[in-house]
Structure formats: structure tokens, C-alpha cells
Write a structure and sequence with these properties.
Elements lengths: L7 H30 L3 H7 L2 E4 L8 E6 L2 E7 L2 H7 L32 E5 L10 E3 L14 E3 L6 E2 L20 E3 L4 E4 L8
Antiparallel strand pairs: 1-9, 2-3, 3-4, 5-6, 6-7, 8-9
Length: 199
């Protein structure tokens, strides 16, 4: 064998190893860049639907959960609460929930819900973003004898009934927002996914 002969198997091995090292280096550089473009677990969770167990919410009680960084209230309205709602339609800005941006189509009804007894509503006032206080008692001294129960915003005095519809004369221009939701069973509701859409 002459001094000028070439060991081709050694050359192939070196070419393959150099290519593999170059590929690994490229992957090491591009992987963090690609991963940085994907949403974080926290970002995914912030927009994710929220499953709520409603089995333990007694009539007349409110359960607060968080969805997309906002408070969402689930209220189990008693029969008395539901009966009171129809008696003050003339005092409301949008009693028929005509503003389509305030609720999904399946909640465009007098009780603004899929099931009359359960109201699911975003707990942020449509005036300047404060969080109203749940005032379910009828006729308290500080709200007047004609108060039928609902929400009172302490920031600027907006008033909402037990269907989260705004009373005339309130600073809030529209009803509270009903988020998309669906019932998974009689005791579970999924907030953040429209009714009829697979979860």
C-alpha cells in the first residue's frame, strides 16, 4: 500500500461524525427559538376552559371561579329569586338581552342561562371594570325598599338584577357578560366552551 492511498472508510466515518455534530449543534440552537414561540403552560391555563362542580351550590348561593384571569360567578337561583326577576323588566336598560355581545345566543332569554336556576356570569362591571357585590337580599336599607336582589357595584353605583341585567340610570351601559359554557352533566359545567361544541 502506497503512502498516497486514502483510507475511504475512515474518511466516511469522519464525514458522518462531522455531519452529526453539525446537526446536533443546529438543533441545539434552533430548539430554544422554536420553544419560545409556543405558549407557556401558564398562558395555556389562562385561556383554558374551567370545569366547575355545581352540586354543592345551595339555592341562593354564589360560587366564584376564575376563567381567563376574570372572576366568573355561578349562582344557584332559588324559585323566589326567579319569580322576582319578571317583576321589574320595565326598570331595566336591556331586559330582553338584545345586545348580542353580552351573551351567547343560547342564553338570550329572560333568565340569561341554559338552565333557569343557574346563572353563569363574568363578575366585572361593564362601566369601568370594578367587581360588583352580590346583594341577594330584597329591600335592604342601604339599597332601598324596591331593591329586588342582584349585584351592586360599589365603585360608581351600577345595579344589576339576578339575571345580571343592568337597571336604568346605572353608569354601566350594558348587562354583565355571560361567558360561553356548556353542561357536561347535571352537576358539572364547563366554562369557556360553547354549548354544542366538543370539549
Amino acid at each position: 500500500m502506497s503512502d498516497k492511498s486514502v483510507d475511504t472508510s475512515k474518511r466516511r466515518f469522519l464525514v458522518i461524525m462531522a455531519s452529526a455534530a453539525g446537526g446536533a449543534a443546529t438543533l441545539a440552537v434552533t430548539a430554544p427559538l422554536v420553544m419560545s414561540m409556543m405558549p407557556s403552560a401558564r398562558a395555556k391555563a389562562a385561556g383554558a376552559p374551567v370545569e366547575v362542580d355545581i352540586s354543592k351550590i345551595e339555592p341562593g348561593m354564589l360560587l366564584a371561579v376564575e376563567w381567563r384571569g376574570k372572576p366568573v360567578w355561578v349562582v344557584n337561583r332559588s324559585k323566589e329569586m326567579l319569580d322576582l326577576m319578571a317583576k321589574h323588566d320595565g326598570k331595566l336598560t336591556d331586559s330582553a338581552s338584545e345586545n348580542a355581545a353580552q351573551q351567547p345566543d343560547y342564553c338570550k332569554n329572560p333568565h340569561r342561562s341554559i338552565k333557569p336556576e343557574y346563572l353563569i356570569v363574568v363578575g366585572i362591571c361593564t362601566h369601568l371594570g370594578c367587581s360588583p357585590t352580590f346583594r341577594k337580599e330584597v329591600g335592604p336599607a342601604d339599597l332601598g325598599s324596591d331593591w329586588p336582589g342582584g349585584w351592586f357595584c360599589p365603585c360608581h353605583g351600577s345595579r344589576f338584577d339576578l339575571a345580571a341585567r343592568v337597571f336604568n340610570g346605572s353608569p354601566a351601559p350594558t348587562n354583565l357578560v355571560i361567558p360561553p359554557h356548556q353542561y357536561l352533566s347535571d352537576t358539572k359545567v364547563l366554562i369557556g366552551v360553547d354549548q354544542g361544541v366538543a370539549a
